[in-house]
Amino acid sequence: MRPSPAASPRRPGGAGDPAALLARTARGDEDAFAQLYDLVSGPVYGLVLRVVRDPAQAEEVAQEVLVEVWRTAARYDAERGGALAWIMTLAHRRAVDRVRSAQAAADREERAHRADGPAFDAVSEEVEGRLERERVRRCLDGLTEIQRESVTLAYYGGHTYREVAELLGTSLGTVKTRMRDGLIRLRDCLGAGS
Amino acid sequence: MTDAVHGLAGPYALDALGPDERRDFERHLDGCAVCAAEVGELAATAARLGAAAARPAPPALRDRVLAEAARTRQAPPRLPAARARRLRRIVPALAAAACLVLATGLGVGWYQADRRAEHAEASSHMMADMMSAPDARTVAGSVTTGGHGMVVVSRDRDAAVVMLSGLDKAPAGRTYAVWLMGDGAPRPAGRMRVADKPAMIHGLGRATGIGVTVEPMDGSAEPAGPEIFTAHWTG
Description:
Chain A is mainly alpha-helical. Chain A has helices at 18-26, 30-52, 55-72, 83-109, 130-141, 145-155, 161-168, 172-193. Chain B: Residues 6-37 form the Anti-sigma-K factor RskA N-terminal domain.
């Protein structure tokens, strides 16, 4: 089985290459954007849902992100990384901004916290992206506990590193370092496994 | 750059900075291309975490997004002048191993393997391509004559970029030779002359290190001259 396009960000040149589709999108090619949508909407929606948790809000944020991809496609800078990474960064930033502003509102209104959503293990097991998911999970397992918690609380939980330090009862310096170490170790592991 | 700011690369890549810290860090990134390159790598890794959370989007979303796109004007591209400025910033800064900022004009030397002669733009694209390789890793080392060297290596790309600073021109009749090591006897990987570009080494095979020595201009079958730089990485 081939990994899904979403799971393998590198497939240069071909029709399924996000960078090529993004370049055509930048020139106003709506067909290319539709193909790009088919390629990245799953990763974008899944990530946003993971952070935001509420499906209706996730759908809203995902729509904002994907339209933003269309709007700013010409601003994508290949020198700063891959096309899928650029889109996922955009998605994550928006999702995090949404939960933080929602959190601020919730704090003001003293509303109760929403219960935890599905754990990493419980995400839907559709075949698409399963290989990538397993690879990422395996690599996450290879981190020390504090590296893993620091990375996932920030990335999937949408917490700031100050909040993560508070949650883990550890120093800011430790959390900052573990986030960086954790990502570097993840990168090495993901690179080696692909 | 200061350690305090550098330490924020991880939290930044994870969007784990508060708004003020994020703004400060981005301002810092604008002036530190090595930091930007590192953040790019970390963010690419974070993006893999994101892609692993993929779930099918609600079917109705597709029509809504495409319809909204159709009535949304696209932002214009950045103008070439701005791009060139950023390229000029990123290329020299990559040479500043471990984020040591070397002022221009201090003899930061770029070397280009003789057998390849891409234009600067292409070279920058190759570098960018290397930096964005998911398995790209950076190995720093010292140049024996003073200065620093850095190798960006990617097994996926089967290539490495060698960047050396603080190196004079090779003595008359001699040249800098690049060797691939760790896979049997050292293999010649090209000669380098002073140029304004990094050396792109293709065909790493199973090599686990790169060395640079001074050799006669007409070539050597094996590294015999003085060692200038070595860097090793694990399989």
